[in-house]
Specification:
Layout (H helix, E strand, L loop, with lengths): L6 E10 L2 E9 L4 E6 L20 E6 L18 H15 L4 E6 L1 H12 L4 E7 L6 H8 L9 H7 L9 H12 L4 H19 L10 H16 L5 H8 L7 E6 L7 H11 L4 E6 L9 H20 L1
Parallel strand pairs: 3-4, 3-5, 5-6, 6-7, 7-8
Antiparallel strand pairs: 1-2, 2-4
Helix pairs in contact: 2-8, 4-6, 5-7, 6-7
GO molecular function, one term: hydrolase activity
Main location: cytoplasm
InterPro entries: AB_hydrolase_1, AB_hydrolase_fold, Peptidase_S33, Pro_iminopeptidase
Length: 314
């Protein structure tokens, strides 16, 4: 029987550029150091994600990335890009004095972890990811154009684009949403926020109602996601192609068979072209995108706990 990680301490780390990152530590300070990388980008860490970890084995590090969660200022997109996030991770590792750590994360968090493990291969002991997002043109078009998931979720896509009836391409869609999220009228802003997040929710867990959440947090999530998508994820795809073959740590990627946010075909094509022998890729039958799916949650828990046990035995 495993126990949930208990709270140790929290800090706000000044990483420069006007950003202070919230870092909460849980579990056993002498356990296997595990950095949790949340998705979005912009989602922040959630307390229920602690259920992924064994508090007796792991020193769990829950880091809110720039502009997210309890990091300050919330929703800030200035100096918020992929390279800045990667540098932040290394600053956190050095601040903690950890020689090397394990990484876990889903969706964009998995993207960020893959990039970090390619840039700093000797600093990563092992890693587990799920719902890996490939930040390519194909990945973006699948999510937001009328040529990908829109063909499987026609009604939901119609609702998503109802606020942008004259948009003929993804760039125009992003421009319209950017204006909507900054509209002077609060009700109009809220409408755009709900519409943006409802589309993603429909793909992540089809037939489920979008869960309610803090309005301000929802606004920051929508704005940061749009910020990254409209800037083509700041060159993350080119960087992933260059460095993924250099990943040294044992790596597990779990992709849901029914992941409509980050479909298996795009992930498999990337790994076939740019992956390496240290990456173990598995498709979870009938699995969806995120941890709200019980099948995916159980597989991720098992993989993380196996990883921690293996590291502790070395």
């Amino acid at each position: 029987m495993t126990s949930l990680p208990t709270f140790i301490r929290r800090d706000w780390l000044d990483v420069g550029d006007g950003h202070q990152l919230h870092l909460a530590q849980y579990g056993d300070p002498d356990g296997v150091p595990v950095l949790y990388l949340h998705g979005g980008p912009g989602a922040g860490c959630m307390s229920d994600e602690l259920a992924l970890f064994d508090g007796d084995n792991c020193h769990v590090l829950m880091l809110d990335q720039r502009g997210t969660g309890r990091s300050k200022p919330l929703g800030e997109i200035e100096k918020n890009n992929v390279l800045a996030l990667l540098k932040d991770l290394e600053k956190v590792r050095l601040w903690l004095g950890i020689p090397a750590w394990c990484l876990v994360g889903g969706s964009f968090g998995a993207t960020l972890g893959m990039l970090y493990s390619g840039l700093y291969p000797e600093k990563v002991l092992s890693q587990v990811y799920w719902g890996l997002f490939i930040p390519s043109e194909d990945g973006t078009n699948w999510l937001y154009s009328n040529k990908g998931a829109a063909n499987l979720f026609a009604d939901e896509y119609l609702a998503f684009t109802a606020l942008t009836p004259f948009c003929s391409n993804v760039d125009q869609l992003f421009k319209t949403y950017r204006l909507g999220l900054k509209h002077n009228d609060a009700d109009t802003r809220h409408h755009y926020i709900r519409s943006w997040l409802a589309w993603e929710s429909a793909l992540a867990m089809p037939a489920n109602e979008m869960s309610g959440s803090d309005a301000f947090m929802s606004k920051s999530l929508a704005e940061i996601e749009l910020h990254y998508a409209s800037h083509q994820y700041f060159g993350a795809y080119s960087l992933m192609r260059e460095i993924s073959a250099g990943i040294q740590a044992p790596s597990i990627i779990l992709q849901g068979e029914m992941d409509w946010v980050c479909p298996t075909q795009i992930v498999e094509n990337f790994l076939t072209q740019f992956g390496c022998d240290t990456i173990n890729y598995s498709v979870i039958k009938s699995g969806y995108h995120g941890l709200a799916d019980d099948k995916m949650f159980r597989e991720v828990v098992y993989a993380i706990r196996e990883m921690a046990n293996n590291i502790k035995e070395v």
